Records
---
Amino acid sequence: MKKILLTIMVVFAGALAANAQKFALVDMEYILKHVPAYERANEQLNQVSKKWEGEIQALLNEVETLYKKYQSESVFLSDTQKSKAEEAIVAKEKEASELKKKYFGSEGELFKKRQSLMSPIQDEIYNAVKEICDKKGYQLVLDRASGGSIIYASPKIDISDEILQRLGYSN
């Protein structure tokens, strides 16, 4: 009898603890849209990206020009001249490929630039979320924008506007 009573009390206490947890939602897309520093950082990244894409395209244009020249002159070239021209084309292609990897690779310059520009913004938002959670006792905060598995959420638990106010970007 004592075991049954103890089991019921443990289950009841667990149910109370589960109900006592507080949850909140944020919409990171909404928050970032209202943070001017994020828009400026995105613009900087787009400008740098376009500049680097231009450099790579210029190299690829050189490759194309070399290849067309090679095709038109190949009948007049000796075997050694052909191999030199082919090597020059391959070298330019390799240079373009390496430049693309340097700028746009997984650890490339664009990745590093994005991290340096976005990390302070993300840290500021994280700290605002943490302060609000500590103040209001939230144990879990979900991102509505990236959470594809959230089917419905009450607008009452969305703290996005509160975060913007904490960051100084009130509506």
Note: The radius of gyration is 29 Å.
---
Amino acid sequence: MIREKKHRLSPETYHGYQIVAFTLCLKNRTSFFTTQERFEIFEKMLLLNAQKFYCDVLVYLFMPNHCHIILSGNNERSDPLAVMKTFKQQTGYWFYKNALNVHWQKDFYDHIIRKEEDITKQVHYVLNNPVRKNLVKNWHDYPFKGSTVYDFKEMGLNWCRNPA
């Protein structure tokens, strides 16, 4: 029997005041996150799970076939990994009930952001994803994004151009 190589850090590594960037992809690159209604359903589940596991959401952005989420633990009981696992399980069930041909890929990508100066750079990268994919000319124009920390409407249009 061939066993899959373990590629995730130990669960304890994610606990507490960690900041973790996640990317979840849809199987077969299915285009799904294309309407405000769909975005709001998934946004609500994400925000409820973040609150349940004591995390702030620095940024979340749903591209048509994947999403980027950066979570920040806000106390010693925080668990960003539990947020993602629960979110993926709940949304996977939602797909099963409402969109039978849409599925998440088996796993997700993540990395712990270790340097304070990397946080802004990571948020810039996420917000500019729809610009790089030519979906909009400016990140402000992309509708399927949010944060529990930043008020993107108050930030200038050039806030995340050419991050240092």
Note: The beta strands are 19-25, 55-63, 66-73, 109-112, 145-146.
